[in-house]
Amino acid sequence: MQKTIWCCWFQGLATAPELVRKCVQSWRDFNPGWEVRCLDADTIARYVDLGAHVELAHQTITAASLSDILRVILLHEYGGVWVDATCLCNAPLDGWLGQAAQTGFFAFARPAADRELASWFLAAQPGNALLAKWAARALAYWQGREATKDYFWLHHQFAELIEIDPEAHAQWTATPQISADGPHSVQAAGLYDDYALARHHVDWSAPVFKLTHRLEEDRLEQHTLLGHILADHADVQQDPVSIAARPAAFASAQLCVGTENLGDHIQIIAGERMLAKLGISSTRFVDRDDEIANPPVDPTAILLNGWFKTNPAQWPPHPDFDPIYLGFHIRLSQSPSLIGPDALDHYRQHGPIGCRDRYTLSLLRRHGVDAFLSNCLTLCFPRRIPAPLQQSEVFVVSRDNRLLDYLPDSLGPTNFISHYSGSGDFVANMAQAEALLATYRDRARLIVTTMLHCALPAIAMGIPVVVFYPPNEAAARQSDRERFSSLADIVRVFELSEMDLVDWRGHCPDIGNIKLALIDSLADMATRWGALQTPRIIGWAPASALPVPGAMDDYDYCNDPERFARLAESKLPDRLKWGSHSSYRPEWAARGGLAAGFVADGETVLEIGAGIGSFRDLIVSRCPYTGTDLQPVDPAFLRLDLEKDPMPVGRWDVVVMLGVLEYIHDPAAALAKISATTPKLVMSYCCAIGDDYIDARRRRGWVSDLDEVELARQVTRSGFEIIDAVQFNDAKDFRQNIFLLRRTFRTAGTTSDVEPAAAGQAGA
Predict the structure, then answer these.
(1) Cβ neighbours, 10 Å, residue 712
(2) Residue 424, pLDDT above cutoff 70
(3) Where is 123: in which H helix or E strand?
(4) Residue 457 is inside which H or E element, if any?
(5) CA angle 485, 486, 491 (to 5 degrees)
């Protein structure tokens, strides 16, 4: 687990309530081996480009919802632990989290009946499959959405995910289920109650306590439970990632190159994007090989990253350039002047030098230059959001197509791409490099490559890779080993003779710590240019735009038409709605009374959709009864998904099914399944009326749309016939009847030609 603790207070800790500051400090107090990063509106953009996912200028997104988006992106990208700013640490993470997060993911379970997990504490490995799928749903939820009424939208997206996705469900099931009740016990015990009395109701074994910043300050005294808990922690220390200064103006420039190797351009793009995170941009370009020793118009800041250099006469840079060296690589065989006396003096003046690879690091240190291993800036491209249906292709990327001759046929169809454009046009090559990165991100399932700056961006984006040394010899081969010296620390780099050793699923290593180190190094080094201004997050909606639960009288997630639409599209049963007592209306008991009139004394009854037991209570005194439901609210009922599960073992004189068929995608198949177990069916159905009924039915969660004629046709196809019907109620778009059906004989869909039981004749 990456030992980073993330939290956020948009307004900055300096203005946060005392409770928030002490909660943040508690994580530092208990976890000295971990790094606490408390982000705010001024620092978020260093780590996450929220603007790539939401448009605060056009969407109504509260700070609470924005932090929901932020947490899943941060953990997907870097891994570690997310804690809400009102979570108080009660035990060191090292003492319990390793076991709890054994699947690479952890959250406290079941904070409420309609929520599978709590989101105020989350832990994940970067790229964890469950977290990645959740992040994908969270971001998709806000695509094209102006606002939401669902305060718990992030939790509900998780619940829908594990219902839809068997792999996600399996990982969540395998995750140790630690109840959220313990962390909530301080609030449940009474924040303002006397500590001596309230402490007996607190689960002190809970490693985390979930508190709230919505406090009545005049009631917060030392003798209270909350006052006692907070007294154990000092006020927050200075946050290491806070930004207090505002920007100073300075001239800056970017590198440009005249090469055809798109890897050079990808490195420039990486540097450009990283500087933008610090609020630094420039339209001035300096040719890496032919202009760097020439005087700029004004003293100019410049980031020097990548491969240097083909023109020994143009080194070291002119003194009016103020460079930062990060991701720097020396190719000494082409330019010995890179370690000449003037160059070494220049490095010492502008160090420390962040080296792209171990070879460059060793070379500079041997000459007394202060240097460190930074790795390449191309490792900071954002991890992609998974979309398996689109990310399905295998790309083979090299300088030329010789690599294809070595690959096994079992790899299947591949797309070959050369990283050499054949042109020295810088602008065209930059556009081609941008398009290439997007292609890898959006389409690649696997990348097989000999190109350093294909492998590194792919790893950064979370794309599985197989990397080979290029098919070079002699001096070129030695240069390859120098250039690949740090990549080889991240993934194995194969010889072309080692094809039999390759796992063709590829490798996708965790580089979250490398990304964070690069971001921090650049931010720290760039302060020498002047004060920085990370692009500030602005424009989130006030909390009143999405009131906390309890203040929302107009929203019911269970009956949200949008949720019904998602369920209908995925053809999933609605376990949430039918697992809740509140979903069953008292007036439905009258429908059960009409249906009971079709059931004779002594008939064995199987009910599908037993609900809260209203029909059972009507007939259990005169009939043997078995109840089933999709998500039983009564433990006496059996679990049955009519569309997927086999019918319960046994044969029944009568099956009763009220308010169920409207939610079945294939009514004929369901009726045929029932006809194999009973000669008699009593059911209700809201038959469609008119042509403008679909939207109204979907808003109720119904997925079948049969009128009376089509229902009769489906009944006949399933092996039943309608004997009688009684109207229960109607509306402008439907008429609900209670139907008595008898099974016909020698009809497709039945399993025998047995006459109906005599008892089945009565009551009709």
Answers:
(1) 16
(2) yes
(3) strand 115-124
(4) helix 452-460
(5) 105
* Tokens encoding 317: 């840079």
Q: 720 pairs with which residues across the strands?
A: 743
Q: How far apart are CA 184 and CA 636, in angstroms?
A: 31
Tokens of 254: 């970017």
* Alpha carbons 78 and 287: distance in angstroms, whole number: 34
Q: Is the peptide bond before 309 cis (omega within 30 degrees of 0)?
A: yes
Non-local CB neighbours of 755 within 8 Å, separated by 6+ positions = 679, 745
pTM (predicted TM-score) = 0.89
Q: Please tell me whether the peptide bond between 316 and the residue prior to it is cis, using omega within 30 degrees of 0.
A: yes
Structural contact between residues 373 and 326, judged by C-beta atoms closer than 8 angstroms: no
Cα within 13 Å of Cα(671), Cβ side:
32
Do the beta carbons of residue 369 and residue 347 sit within 8 Å?
yes
Reading the block at residue 234, the tokens are: 């000092």
The C-alpha atoms of residue 184 and residue 197 are separated, in whole angstroms, by 17
Q: Which of 192, 204, 130 is nearest to 164 (CA)?
A: 130
Look-up of token digits 């997206």: 157
Residue of 358, 421, 352, 380 lying closest to 267 (CA atoms): 380
Cis amide bond preceding 382, omega within 30:
no
Tokens linked to 685: 């159905």
Other CB atoms within 10 Å distance of the CB of residue 406:
15
What is the model's pLDDT at position 760? 32
56 residue type, one letter: L
What tokens appear for 214 in the block? 């919505």
Residue 347 contacts residue 354 (beta carbons within 8 Å) = no
Q: Locate 30 and state its tokens.
A: 């208990």
User: Would you call 205 exposed, middle or buried from its count of C-beta atoms within 10 A (0-12, 13-18, 19+)?
Assistant: exposed
Three-class secondary structure assignment of 352-405: CEEECCHHHHHHHHHCCCCEEECCCHHHHCCCCCCCCCCCCEEEEEECCHHHHH
C-alpha closest to that of 14 among 46, 40, 48: 40
Band of the pLDDT at 333, cuts 50, 70, 90? confident
User: How far apart, in whole angstroms, are the C-alpha atoms of residue 127 and residue 638?
Assistant: 38
Judge contact between 2 and 78, C-beta under 8 A.
yes
User: Do the beta carbons of residue 86 and residue 23 sit within 8 Å?
Assistant: yes
End-to-end CA distance of the chain: 66
Per-residue 3-state assignment (H helix, E strand, C coil) for 546-585: CCCCCCCCCCCHHHCHHHHHHHHHHCCCCHHHHCCHHHCC
Query: What tokens does 632 get?
Result: 């039983």
> Look-up: residue for tokens 């032919």?
290
User: Could you please report the per-residue DSSP string of 705-744?
Assistant: ---HHHHHHHHHHTTEEEEEEEEEEEETTEEEEEEEEEE-
Q: What is the CA radius of gyration of the chain?
A: 33
Q: What three-state secondary structure class fits 67?
A: helix
- CA 155/CA 163 separation, integer angstroms: 13
Q: Which token pair is 123?
A: 């832990």
Q: 675-711, pLDDT tens digit by residue?
A: 999 999 999 999 999 877 888 999 999 999 999 999 9
Q: Which two tokens stand for residue 501?
A: 């050793």
Lowest average pLDDT, out of 191-200, 516-525, 647-656, 690-699, goes to 690-699
CB 242 within 8 A of CB 24: no
Neighbours of 223 (CB within 10 A): 11
Among residues 661, 662, 646, 640, the alpha carbon closest in space to that of 720 is found at 661
d(CA 153, CA 458): 32
CB 674 within 8 A of CB 742: no
Point out which residues pair with 107 in neighbouring strands: 122
Quick one: 111 exposed, middle or buried, by C-beta within 10 A (0-12, 13-18, 19+)? buried
pLDDT digits (tens, 9 = 90+) for 203-243: 999 999 999 988 776 676 778 998 888 887 777 655 555 54
